[in-house]
Specification:
The chain is α/β, with parallel strands linked by helices and 436 residues long. 29% of the residues lie in helices and 25% in strands. The structure holds 5'-O-[hydroxy(phenylacetyl)phosphoryl]adenosine.
Length: 436
């Protein structure tokens, strides 16, 4: 297999050299952090008075974690390390509580981020000459503009169409013979379900690859996308606090995502004790940004759960691979005392061939008890068959789910197009239990 590189020297740097670079950049990041009101207070409280206190990579653990709430409390400028006139871009995430977190980029920050994204794109085998339809939302969200700049740097033909307007997306794919898509997996499945409605079929298109990310999805969802569209789909992970997309991305091997360790230090911790887990074990991802001067962020608790592969990838890159995101520390549902992760549900239903492209997890209360209902869309032809067959399918889905999540959910079968869709990140869980 041919392995393409954007910057082979950095991507294959041997571990001792990579760690040397990390230490050097970490010390630099700490000096930037000392220019922000937030870290000026936080670091001395932990006994750190300057970059010289960090003599080796393990010294990183002396630095306290940074949490989402720290960012919110520092809004708007508590984490700004440069003068405003140096800032050429602002991104923010609105979060669920409505208090935004804000990230400032100086020109060199944007340049480094763009370069990381070019690296991600090329690692998938995409290149100049590809036609890139960017369906991620443009705006304060990092998904649109982030990849846009990376794709331009690679020399792809960029179509900055943004999210939504499904018919127009499909027509555009045909008009410009798009070869690469950037999209959330849920929206891509929705688009696939609409192919053919206005006379544009898969055979009219030239799709080869999709970069899918920004929301959780299972390996079975990836397979479904690949099979339905006849393309290669690559997982892409990132979060606005750490620039956005470009933190970790799959290469041509498609065996989980290289996390760019010259730009980020990754730790996997036990979310309760805060201690590092054993090599290869699952835990919460903690990230330090080594290359952003205007908003330095150290040891950020992402709340995402994943593990690092201890063994190297066949492609020759030395940067370790992060597993797909297995859940979040804050998305676990407790149903009558049993812990259930939405990802367990998705993994099961997406491998059932009769299940179409959309589903929803609904929780409410019946009397004193919690009630879990999994609503799935199934292919329309199944509704034309015998009722007993539908009942059998419902029973099979229920049984599959029970084997994974231990409790037995209600299962509802719906016609395609009847469950709510999202043109960006999908909202899979609706929890209507009264909050007390
Ligand atoms: O979603 C950045 C992004 C844009 C990533 C485009 C990939 C592609 P936020 O809006 O801040 O940033 O949301 C970050 O989304 O902490 C994860 O919980 C989730 N997430 C992002 N990528 C993945 C993925 C962007 N590949 C939050 N798999 C993160 C699972 C993901 N979850």
């Amino acid at each position: 297999m041919e392995v393409p590189f954007w910057n082979k020297e950095i991507e294959t740097l041997d571990r001792p050299m990579l760690e040397k670079l990390q230490l050097q950049r970490l010390r630099e990041a700490i000096s930037w952090a000392f220019r922000t009101p937030f870290y000026q207070k936080r670091l001395p409280q932990a006994g750190i008075t300057g970059p010289d206190d960090i003599k080796s990579l393990p010294d990183l653990q002396r630095i306290p974690f940074t949490e989402k709430d720290d960012l919110r409390r520092s809004f708007p400028k508590g984490l700004l390390a440069v003068e405003m006139k140096e800032v050429i871009r602002i991104h923010s995430s609105s979060g669920t509580t409505g208090i935004p977190t804000v990230i400032y980029f100086a020109r060199d920050d944007l340049d480094r981020w763009t370069d990381l994204l070019a690296r991600c794109i090329v690692a998938t085998g995409a290149s100049a000459g590809d036609v890139f339809q960017n369906m991620m939302t443009y705006g304060m969200f990092t998904g649109g503009l982030g990849l846009h700049y990376g794709a331009e740097r690679v020399g792809m033909t960029v179509i900055p169409i943004s999210g939504g307007k499904t018919k127009r997306q499909i027509q555009t794919m045909k008009d410009f013979q798009t070869t690469v898509l950037h999209v959330t997996p849920s929206y891509l499945l929705h688009i696939q379900s609409k192919l053919g409605e206005d006379g544009v079929n898969l055979a009219d298109l030239s799709l080869r690859r999709a970069f899918i990310g920004a929301e959780p999805h299972s390996e079975n969802t990836r397979r479904k996308i690949e099979e339905l569209l006849g393309i290669d789909a690559f997982n892409s992970y990132g979060l606005s606090e750490l620039n956005g997309p470009g933190v970790a991305f799959e290469c041509v091997c498609k065996k989980d995502m290289h996390l760019w360790e010259d730009a980020y230090i990754v730790e996997i911790i036990d979310p309760i004790s805060g201690q590092a887990v054993e090599n290869g074990q699952e835990g919460e991802v903690v990230l330090t940004n080594l290359v952003r001067r205007a908003t330095p962020i150290l040891r950020y608790r992402t709340r995402d759960l994943a593990f690092l592969h201890p063994e190297p990838c066949e492609c020759g890159r030395t940067h370790r691979r992060l597993s797909r995101i297995l859940g979040r520390t804050d998305d676990m549902l407790i149903i009558n005392g049993v812990n259930v992760f939405p990802s367990q549900i998705e993994e099961k239903i997406m491998k059932i061939p009769e299940v179409a492209t959309n589903y929803q997890i609904y929780v409410d209360k019946k009397g004193a008890l919690d009630r879990l209902t999994v609503k799935v869309e199934i292919y329309p032809k199944l509704f034309l068959g015998e009722v007993s067959k539908l009942e059998a399918l419902r029973g099979r889905i229920r049984e599959e789910l029970r084997s994974s999540i231990v409790i037995t959910p209600n299962v509802e079968l719906h016609e395609p197009g009847s469950l709510p869709i999202s043109e960006g990140k999908a909202k899979r869980v609706v929890d209507e239990r009264p909050k007390d």
